[in-house]
Design goal:
single chain; about 100 residues; four-stranded antiparallel β-sheet; 2 helices
């Protein structure tokens, strides 16, 4: 009998990176590192879905990032490899869409 290992199920997570970036070029460099780590080093464990870029009260840039991952430790490892903050990591329980994101 052949027993196949099941792939871990990906869960959706919201990650808050508060005041993590000095400016847009800093954010762009971080995004490139994040994509490289996720796509090339951890594609079976972490997937970056989208990010919302926010202006923080201190003038710096923060993000709310939506990722799929097999677990929180994988998100933390991705952040460490990409040299990113991960101030808060919360599982997404559901999605309520009143209107699609504007373009």
């Amino acid at each position: 009998m052949l027993i196949r290992a099941r792939k871990p199920t990906m869960q959706l997570y919201a990650i808050r990176r508060r005041s993590a970036f000095a400016d847009v070029p800093d954010l762009e460099q971080a995004a490139a590192r994040s994509a490289e780590v996720g796509n090339e080093e951890m594609p079976d464990r972490v997937r970056w879905i989208r990010s919302y870029v926010v202006q923080e009260d201190d003038g710096r840039i923060g993000t709310v990032c939506i990722y799929q991952a097999i677990d929180v430790p994988s998100i933390r490892e991705h952040a460490q490899r990409a040299n990113l903050a991960a101030d808060e990591i919360n599982p997404v329980l559901n999605t309520v869409i009143v209107r699609p994101d504007p373009s």
